[in-house]
From TrEMBL:
GO molecular function: electron transfer activity; molybdenum ion binding; molybdopterin cofactor binding; oxidoreductase activity; transferase activity
Boundaries of every Molybdopterin dinucleotide-binding domain copy: 628-746
Alphabetically ordered keywords of this record: Metal-binding, Molybdenum, Oxidoreductase, Transferase
Protein name: Asp-tRNA(Asn)/Glu-tRNA(Gln) amidotransferase GatCAB subunit C
One example of a Gene Ontology biological process annotation: anaerobic respiration
Length: 755
């Protein structure tokens, strides 16, 4: 941007929320300035100032007192409420070597849980989970996890319906195709720009705002289907439809029914490109179960005007329509259904594969969705092979700890939980991200040992026995290149880490060395050697895909490189639409599966063979009259729990409490005024919050971002003082198919806080 001073001589650093120029006075970081290429930089990075040192920084290896004092029982009941003692790296390495040897020899390697979910930090080489898994694989393996918290249900359902989520995500229709060709953009779950701040692995230039506004200027009509009006920016002037949360599937069925009964569906597309429409249609019309899924039927469930559904269906048929379904829709009870429903609706409209038409899964969930770029398969740190076959669906962690040997279903398989004796987490914060934290906290006390690598004292670190202090991205050199973003950034160390901290690589290399496996772990490379190696491999892969990258030293000297954008905007499934025989999609049938013989064969009552409206276990349709549906969405001021302790996040907490947004009508009905301190509660737990009145929130809904560090009260059982909504959310799988998390399906009540 032209009005910024030239800072191109300053070193670059990169995070999931963007790229920055670092101003230092030679020793200390003074400022982080937006990268000159970024047209819409994020403020999140400013949260680092003040927390690089100080009381929240982990500065040395720490071991829990009770764990040291009782080598038999390990005083496990004190885990999460105990003191720590500082030890040397030599001592901690010897404690860990002994414990790993004991656990693997007594119980086998499957007793180590190394699933370690979490976002860690940007940087191709310094990827915490990659190093953890490489190390654990080297010592005989570990139980791992599959799928994500982001959209586990979406990943598994897409495997059956369109051949995989991540493949489709990489094929997402570009924003430019939408700008040039769409007439209507219907966003289930909205287009939250605050989420587009983020891109896993880093981003050079934030594109979502500019693209949306270009589309609007070009006449695209936006429709936001969401409990929050501000899930799309005001400038889009979007039509706001606000069904009850967790009822989008009913609304989409109402749209499908309208298309079918009014003859507005594209039978030719359905015949050529999909399988199983007839089975789905029998359900839609009620031939199968006696209930036609009319607009009227849907409106009753969603609590909206049926006319809105009828008119929207007709408009979507008349105009070139892009349908977006946000990832949040999958983090719900029966979260497999919304993506399947959106894909079914788009199939009936028959615009899939046309410029600006069809569907996209999560525009603005992250900056990379809809970017005009080559999707390049860059190399990642090799993790070796895991000799242990056992895994859990990522969000079944508490079930696993509570229920060793217990059986569970997953995607057609019958599996059992291992007997976990040691947990190792690096680069994630389960005491932020998991549901029903009070239940997790109790189950977490079962294993003998918990090891956590982190750079700051998160609740997870506080619930560990052995805490290994690591660095953050400001404190190490690396390369930010994600393959989902055209920018490659040579990251430089711009802040000195506390002297006793180590990079995750060094932590595991040190341990491997002590266990006689140092050479196997390092393969003879030092940290710079690995970065050269990974970049060199990536360069070869890019070249094979027709893209030339500068060599490593040139990249380092220049600081960054932008991969040129392709000549023409990408359109999802374009080739498939043109010739489904020649270009099948990777499903069983090669076509879009509106009825899946495979899913049907699993016989799951909670995920039948076609899209089905399944009542959520908890929603505004079955709760007490004073219950509110809690939307615990992504925070604007941070990435999940990262930098919650920093000024940007803390500065957004009026009077130190997390904001709970409420419609003024709901506040008035409860006698609550703006700024009131409340306890948000249900049968699972409670947390403190401060009421903020806002008519952008649908009546019956309360909204509170995730990310506040879990801070359990020592006086009141089950109460989080910092306002982490996961003390309220239910921990159960979306269905037997994906077993994904369901944070967005949650009812709560409010009472004045006792403070
Ligand atoms: N209620 C509710 N809960 C949710 C969600 C929701 O919508 N509602 N969303 C869910 C979703 S989509 C997700 S993805 C999860 C996110 O959950 P997580 O990914 O676990 O959350 P983060 O806060 O990003 O955790 C990353 C941790 O890694 C640490 N870290 C950063 N860099 C490094 C490093 O270099 N090395 C090491 N060792 N550690 C590092 C950070 O300090 C932080 O503690 O949360 C889920 N939970
Ligand atoms: N700033 C910031 N950006 C982020 C993240 C972050 O922590 N901070 N996290 C990143 C990660 S890991 C992920 S997975 C993505 C997640 O991206 P999303 O899944 O899109 O994130 P959410 O903010 O949970 O949800 C988006 C909106 O969906 C709406 N919604 C919730 N339930 C329903 C429903 O039943 N029906 C309808 N129609 N709408 C509903 C809510 O109003 C919410 O604001 O965000 C990424 N971006
Ligand atoms: Mo996520």
């Amino acid at each position: 941007m032209t009005d910024r001073p030239d800072r191109s001589h300053m070193p670059l650093t990169a995070m999931h929320w963007g790229t920055y120029r670092a101003e230092t006075d030679g020793t200390t970081l003074q400022a982080l300035h937006p990268f000159e290429e970024d047209v819409d930089p994020s403020n999140i990075a400013q949260g680092y100032f003040g927390v690089l040192d100080g009381p929240t920084r982990i500065t040395a290896p720490m071991v829990r007192k009770g764990w040291l004092e009782d080598p038999e029982g390990r005083n496990r009941d004190r885990r999460g409420a105990d003191d720590f003692v500082e030890v040397s790296w030599g001592r901690v390495e010897s404690l860990l070597t002994d414990e790993l040897t004991r656990v693997t020899q007594t119980y086998g390697n499957e007793a180590i849980y190394g699933g370690s979910y979490g976002w860690a930090s940007a940087g191709r080489f310094h990827h915490a989970q990659g190093h953890l898994r490489r190390f654990l694989n080297l010592i005989g393996g570990h139980t791992t996890s599959v799928n994500t918290y982001s959209l586990a249900a979406g990943e598994v359902i897409c495997e059956h319906v369109i051949g995989g989520f991540w493949v489709a995500a990489a094929d997402t229709t570009d924003w430019q195709s939408i700008v040039d060709n769409s007439e209507v953009f219907v966003a289930f779950g909205g287009l939250p720009l605050r989420n587009g701040q983020i891109s896993q692995g880093g981003t050079g230039r934030h594109r979502q705002r500019e693209a949306m506004l270009d589309a609007r200027r070009n006449g695209v009509e936006f429709v936001t289907v969401s409990p929050l009006r501000d899930d799309s920016v005001a400038a889009l002037d979007a039509q706001w439809i606000a069904p009850r949360p967790s009822t989008d599937v009913a609304m989409i069925l109402g749209l499908c029914h309208t298309l079918l009964t009014e003859g507005l569906h594209d039978q030719a597309f359905l015949d050529r490109c999909t399988v199983g429409f007839d089975r789905f249609a029998a359900y839609l019309t009620g031939a199968q179960d006696g209930t036609p899924k009319t607009a009227q039927w849907a409106a009753g469930i969603c609590d909206i005007d049926p006319q809105v559904i009828l008119e929207l269906a007709r408009k979507m048929h008349r105009k070139r329509t892009m349908i977006s379904a946000s990832w949040s829709l999958t983090r719900q009870d029966h979260g497999e259904q919304p993506f399947w429903a959106a894909i079914t609706l788009a199939s009936m409209l028959g615009q899939i594969g046309l410029p600006g038409g069809g569907f996209g899964l999560g525009y603005s969930a992250v900056n990379s969705l809809g970017l005009e770029n080559h999707s390049l398969p860059y190399a990642a740190m090799p993790q070796g092979a895991n000799p242990v076959q056992r895994f859990i669906p990522v969000a079944r962690i508490t079930d696993m700890l509570e229920n060793p040997g217990g059986a569970f279903d997953y995607n057609g398989q019958k599996l059992t939980y291992p007997d976990t004796r040691l947990i190792w987490w690096a680069g994630g914060n389960p005491f932020h991200h998991h549901q029903d934290l009070n239940r997790l906290r109790a189950a977490w006390r079962r294993p003998d040992t918990v090891v956590v690598n982190d750079w700051c004292w998160t609740a997870t670190a506080q619930h560990a026995d052995i805490v290994l202090p690591c660095t953050n991205p400001l404190e190490r050199s690396d390369i930010s290149m994600s393959g989902r973003d055209p920018y490659i950034i040579a990251m430089e160390q711009v802040s000195a880490p506390p002297p006793l901290t180590r990079n995750d690589y060094e932590i595991f290399h040190g341990l491997a060395t002590r266990m006689g496996l140092g050479a196997a772990f390092s393969e003879g490379r030092d940290q710079d050697g690995w970065q050269r190696h990974l970049y060199g491999e990536s360069r070869n892969r890019a070249r094979a895909a027709g893209v030339e990258l500068p060599d490593y030293d040139t990249l380092r000297a220049r600081g960054w490189h932008k991969v040129p954008v392709p000549d023409k905007p990408n359109v999802m499934f374009e080739a498939f639409r043109a010739d489904p025989q020649a270009h099948p999609i990777p499903t069983k049938s090669g076509k879009i599966e509106l009825w899946s013989a495979e899913i049907d064969s699993f016989g799951y009552d909670d995920c039948p063979g076609h899209v089905t409206w399944l009542e959520p276990f908890e929603w505004l349709g079955n709760g007490d009259t004073d219950a509110l549906h809690l939307i615990s969405n992504q925070p604007r001021t941070k990435l999940h729990s990262q930098l919650d302790h920093g000024l940007v996040s803390q500065g957004d907490r009026p009077g130190g409490l997390e904001r709970l947004r409420l419609n003024p009508k709901d506040a008035a009905a409860r006698g609550l005024s703006d700024g009131a301190a409340v306890e948000v509660f249900n049968s699972r737990g409670a947390c403190l919050a401060r009421v903020v009145l806002d008519d952008a929130v649908r009546p019956g809904v309360a909204q509170m971002a995730t990310g506040a560090w879990f801070n359990p009260s020592r006086q009141v059982e089950g109460l989080c003082l910092n306002g982490n909504p996961n003390v309220l959310t239910e921990d159960r799988g979306t269905s037997k198919l994906a077993q994904g998390p369901i944070a967005h399906t949650c009812l709560v009540k409010l009472r004045p806080a006792q403070m």
